[in-house]
Write a structure and sequence with these properties.
364 residues, mainly alpha, 15 helices, globular
Length: 364
């Protein structure tokens, strides 16, 4: 018997709850910022000038730890520490390509094509449904019948909102544009599982620095290749860039990885269900995007899916962080973070086989 996966309420105290609420708002801001930038420049221009300043700002997070290790004589070339460091950087570069380059190109591209911010956010928000469906083979956990029902309800909600957007009188996006956000969502899912399968944790700030430096190189190359590297002179363009740097990257993207380590992949992805409603409200207020009864019904179904999936409160996302669940320090402690069943401690495997909850689960 495998341990069922669930989406509990965000736990860990007021700090974690506050970070979760801030994450939802900041993640929603990315869709709004994409539309703000798309009004003045092509996608590649916006993304290039979003990530170049970020790469410069975060450069100390990459350079200073390396200098400290060198002064201490740790991680010299050719030793095990150096090889481990190189593998860690290579892994974070791959995560950055998936979670930023692939994800953002599709999201920004869809919005530039005319897909509404709310619809794009909702497609992105079904990420937890995909994660839950893939959690069994990739993380060694099971999905219950109630959760499968939640997956189905969520899909219906996405279909309803997408249909309302595509058939709205003010909608001008081609039909195939509504498939573009799905590629970005799948790219972020792949990045999430790649991070969870890692045997060791990279500090969040260092990981963010590697991701942004990688994205800056990729987006600059794309902008130069397409002749879109020169930014417009409009002040609104730089307002959009500042919005994306501060709110979307440091706020949304940074908090995504912080919370991923703090409360786990399942809870973080459950928070994604709240993003579409917030984004739809922003889109209606700032861009007069239509909100119909079908849109509201679809968003309600997506939220209902979150409730259905979250009814199974006890969960194991395949991670053993070695902490008491009530301890809210957000530190990984250097413990292994297993990504597959076979890497759980033997005692937990025996309890799972007998269908008995572990010590931490029994306290919840």
């Amino acid at each position: 018997m495998r341990i069922p996966i669930g989406i509990p309420a965000v736990r860990g105290g007021w700090v974690t709850t506050g970070l979760a609420a801030l994450f939802v708002v900041c993640w929603s801001s990315g869709f709004v910022g994409a539309k703000l930038g798309a009004g003045d420049a092509p996608v590649t221009t916006v993304l290039m000038w979003r990530f170049l300043p970020l790469a410069v700002l975060l450069l100390p997070a990459l350079v200073l730890p390396a200098l400290v290790r060198r002064r201490r004589g740790v991680g010299e070339a050719g030793d095990a520490g150096g090889r481990t460091g190189l593998r860690s950087v290579a892994r974070e570069m791959a995560i950055g390509v998936l979670s930023q380059t692939g994800y953002l190109l599709s999201v920004y591209g869809a919005i530039e094509l005319g897909v509404s911010t709310g619809t794009t956010a909702l497609v992105d928000g079904i990420q937890p449904l995909v994660v839950a469906a893939l959690a069994g083979p990739l993380l060694g956990v099971a999905v219950t019948g109630r959760q499968w029902a939640g997956l189905g309800v969520g899909v219906v909600g996405v279909a309803a909102v997408t249909w309302a957007d595509a058939t709205a009188p003010t909608g001008g996006a081609p039909w195939w544009a509504y498939a573009v956000p799905f590629t970005g969502m799948l790219s972020l899912v792949a990045a999430t599982f790649l991070e969870r399968r890692a045997s060791s944790a990279t500090p969040p700030l260092r990981a963010l620095a590697v991701h942004c430096a990688t994205s800056a190189v990729v987006f600059t190359g794309l902008a130069l290749a397409t002749g879109t590297a020169v930014p417009p002179g409009a002040a609104s363009f730089w307002v959009a860039v500042a919005w994306l740097v501060v709110l979307s990257t440091f706020g949304g993207y940074g908090l995504y990885w912080v919370l991923l380590r703090r409360v786990g992949v399942t809870v973080v992805n459950a928070l994604m269900f709240l993003v579409p409603a917030v984004t739809t409200a922003w889109g209606a207020a700032m861009f007069a995007e239509p909100v119909t009864a079908v849109t509201v019904a679809g968003l309600a179904l997506a939220l209902g899916a979150c409730v259905l999936v979250g009814r199974d409160g006890d969960h194991d996302d395949g991670r053993d962080d070695g902490h008491d669940d009530g301890h809210d320090d957000g530190h990984d402690g250097g413990h292994r973070r297993p990504g597959v069943r076979g890497r759980r401690p033997a005692a937990r495997r025996r309890r799972a086989a007998r269908g008995r909850p572990g010590r931490r689960a029994a306290r919840r």
